[in-house]
Amino acid sequence: MELKEEGARTGDGPAAEVPPLRRIVVESETVPIRVGDYAGPPDPEYGKEPWQLAAGLDGEPTWIEERMRTEGLSIAYGDKRAVKDVSIEVNSGEVLALIGPSGCGKTTLLRSLNRLVELTPAAKRTGRIILDDQDVDSFDVTHLRSRVGMLFQQPNPFPMSIFDNVAYGLRERGSKKPRRRQLEPIVVDALERAGLWDEVSSNLNHPALALSGGQQQRLCIARSLAVSPEVLLLDEPCSALDPISTGIIEETIVELRSEVAIVIVTHNLQQAARIADRVAFMYLGDMVESGPAGQVFGAPREARTQEYVGGGFG
Amino acid sequence: MEAATLTEAPARATLGRDRTDRRVELLLGALASTILLLIAGMILFVLIKALPSFTHNGLAWFGAGGSVDDQLMNIFNSPADPADYVYKLRAWPLLYATALITGVAVFVSVVFSVLSGIFIVEFAPDRLRRVIEPVVKLLAAVPSVIYGLIGILVVVPWVADHLISEDRKASVAYVIQLDGTSILVGIFILTIMICPIMIAIIVDALRSVPEKWVEGAAALGVNRWRAMRTVSLRAIRPAIVAALVLATARALGEAIMLSMVAGSVGFAPNPLDGITFLFEPARPLASTIVDNSEGLSVVPFGQTMYAFAAILLISSAFLSFAGWAARKSFSRYTLGAR
Q1: Is residue A13 scored above 80 in pLDDT?
Q2: Could you tell me if residue B336 is inside a domain?
Q3: Residues of B with CB under 8 A from a CB of A
């Protein structure tokens, strides 16, 4: 009898005793977060009209259209559930920022969108991920990943020339290797969109690893763009970079959002406020709240969100 | 007061460390120079000793003509008078055997080692990996004479009994005896001998390829095998070259095992003989030196052996240089990232 009770208690334990939130992010009062002039509840027309939400930077108004969504998505590593029943949509024309404390499952969620999480042997997924009205499980994973590009925390250009890095995805896509002459316009265009062309135009054959960290990260953006993805996943792309490189990358992201749906995981609330149109706050695997950036930062509905972003407002 | 001690103390410490550094530097420098001098002296000595054999034969030394074993016998039986020393030698069968056996064995090993390296690092289940890796490292250290013994006691009789038909033996009986000792067995055992060291080097190199490169390729929609080929294998090309140089050096210098299983006959196997070619015997340079070591006191014979040694030395020097150049050009894009 006693044993049973004990078992029952431990089984319910983790769900019952949620550890208290701690304010770990941005205690500084000297760097205020700028958010848009959002006031009031989320617009019911949101998603149907061209909508200007980008707050900090002067992004162009964009047309918002759903690209991807998850339905009841859960991911577990063995017994540990990292993402719990998350449903969220990813739209082209906007930047979606996933925020939350370390270990809250936001990177796992991001990595599941291109099924990269499956590289981890113990990972198990339930729920659906839909890209343009098709379940991603119905595509070849190779095809999915060329439509959903990804950028990592550490810049990871390959040990090749700058040109070969950008052309890599194109060359590996088909069975027939395209000629350099055919690839060149695509490579140049990708480098231009990533804002790197002016710096590397004269030395495309130089080793990519000789570039600076920020340049390497923009090269990785160009490498993803070259295969013309519809969605771009960014996993804390600026965490290894200095403020100036970070600024350049943020500008690039805001410019790109009119053509590609962008999801960015960030620890940096100010960054989220600067570039995100929509923000989703995750805590212990749960999607606590998501909505327009101005609302999540300015008038959060949930107490946990309030507490987390509150640190940034002093 | 406090400031003064603070500035002085580190200065003294640096000075002390510098003096120790300088001493160690000198000591190590002296050691390195001694080794370099010894090597240079050895090369010079071998070349000088080898010179008469080369000057008497000219470029014909490298050519074919007559039986090389008969020529070696004549040199061994030279008259005692230095004026009548016999030097005539056409070393082609030995050079050809060295290049053939080394080349084929190294080529097969590279392909096999790269594939097994990929298997061990990427695809092997953990339990298998934990067994394979130590075994491979152990095999790399087995003395070659053991391979030779197994070769002559097990492989050679098996080949003679099961692979070479009586008809085939009879068809070439007037030229050469097919008794199982053959280039086939030589290449087979040499391949087994040099694979472990290559696999060990390639596995270590593949392990050190940053995970983020493989992940980056995967995120671009490239499958595991293709990412391996286009990113990881490209990145470890310098290590593959290093493994190649080491293995080739070992194969070039392999004497005992090959003299046991490859026939030890100064014969140039002819690929035009079809399948029979594989069962024909041969003897590379290093084995020739070992097999004839008892005759070194005969001056022209000793000089001829030095000529073989000189060829081996020059080949390995060239090999090292080519390896260095290849590694350098391959490392251009890697930069020290690994």
Answers
A1: no
A2: no
A3: 210, 212-213, 215-223, 226, 230-231, 234-235, 332-335, 337
